[in-house]
Design goal:
Bound molecules: threonylcarbamoyladenylate, magnesium ion
Radius of gyration: 19 Å
CATH class of the largest domain: Alpha Beta
Order of helices and strands: EHEEHEHEHEHEHEEEHEEHEEHEH
């Protein structure tokens, strides 16, 4: 069931059930983070390996001390400037956070989403919500309530309808171990903005999903149709005889024989491109295509997060 009933969503979560929640980045698959059994349901519903830790969501920075032991000054500074927003801070967890949430790791990801509906839900709960992206493990993250319903509809008690996600790529994840700030996943808060505030940060080479490196698993964000990343004209020339779907930044190809083309932002706006990225990948994946081709984005701002997702979606070989 999809709707905007926050009270109903709250009741389901209090019963230990799963609820799809909108955030500014992507939709989450939420459960009471302090209830082991509820958290287990998340892993089952997503078919997610238990070694892949979850992040927890709450309504305000003031509450975070209940779940983390220590807040380094750089984390505090980032929180004051960027939260609520698309940034997840990895901080040392207190014992009250069940080990299943962090896959046994000492750090827990803390996220304060800015979506008004989810913010208001979180304000009314007396526990934080563990929530990964609401997609089956390895598939493209959902950016509408309908995306969640299509794939996980049978497994959730309710989906909160919050409209299409404004940012469209997941939160940036940053850790502060050994006095060094490291971005583990490029996301909705740009590295440029982070560095403007706290100075240079290390960036983990391949960003996401094993405990050391969130999002490293090879086939992540992957469509079912073979997906290639490179120069569009060259890729297209190699596959003239096939049904090709094209995912372009602002220009696209002009050939008549393209089966379907999506131009993410005719005005070359990276934020607009990020917003539409996952919905476009899903749309192309639904069509009877032989392959999808996409081009690399400018390696700046949100373009870095977009490139990271495209690379991990790409068919190897
Ligand atoms: O924007 C987002 O962050 C969305 C929305 C729903 O909030 N959530 C999300 O969660 O993307 P998920 O689980 O799909 O991705 C979180 C990533 C995973 O790749 C996980 O491996 C990593 O964060 N992660 C979580 N806790 C970690 C930890 N303690 N150490 C290292 N990586 C961690
Ligand atoms: Mg995910």
């Amino acid at each position: 069931m999809i709707g905007q009933d926050i009270i109903y969503a709250k009741q389901q979560l209090e019963k230990g059930l799963l609820v799809g929640i909108p955030t500014e980045t992507v939709y989450g698959l939420a459960a009471n983070a302090l209830d082991q059994q509820a958290v287990t349901r998340i892993f089952e519903a997503k078919n997610r390996p238990s070694f892949d830790p979850l992040i927890i969501h709450t309504s305000s920075w003031d509450r975070v001390g209940q779940w983390v032991r220590d807040i380094p000054p750089l984390a505090q500074q980032l929180a004051e400037n960027f939260l609520p927003g698309p940034l997840t801070l990895l901080l040392p967890k207190r014992a009250i956070v069940p080990d299943i949430v962090t896959a046994g790791l000492p750090l827990v990801g803390i996220r304060i989403p800015s979506h008004p509906l989810t913010k208001s839900l979180l304000e009314q709960l007396d526990f934080p919500l563990a929530a990964p992206s609401a997609n089956p493990f390895g598939y493209i993250s959902p950016t509408t309530a309908q995306h969640v319903a299509n794939q996980l509809g049978q497994k959730v008690a309710y989906i909160l309808e919050g409209g299409p996600c404004a940012v469209g790529v997941e939160s940036t994840i940053i850790s502060f171990e050994a006095g060094r700030s490291t971005v583990l996943r490029k996301g909705g808060t740009s590295i440029e903005n982070i560095e403007a505030l706290i100075g240079p940060v290390a960036v983990y080479a391949h960003s996401t999903s094993n405990p050391q490196a969130p999002g490293m698993l090879k086939s992540h964000y992957a469509p079912n149709v073979p997906f290639y990343l490179g120069q569009l004209d060259q890729l297209f020339a190699q596959h003239q005889d096939k049904k090709v779907g094209v995912l372009a930044f602002h220009q696209g190809l002009t050939a008549d024989s393209i089966a379907h083309q999506i131009i993410l932002s005719p005005s070359a706006n990276l934020a607009e491109a990020a917003q539409g990225l996952f919905a476009a990948m899903r749309a192309l994946d639904q069509l009877p295509l032989d392959l999808i081709i996409a081009e690399p984005f400018p390696e700046e701002g949100l373009g870095r997060a977009i490139n990271d997702r495209l690379r991990r979606a790409a068919t190897s070989a």
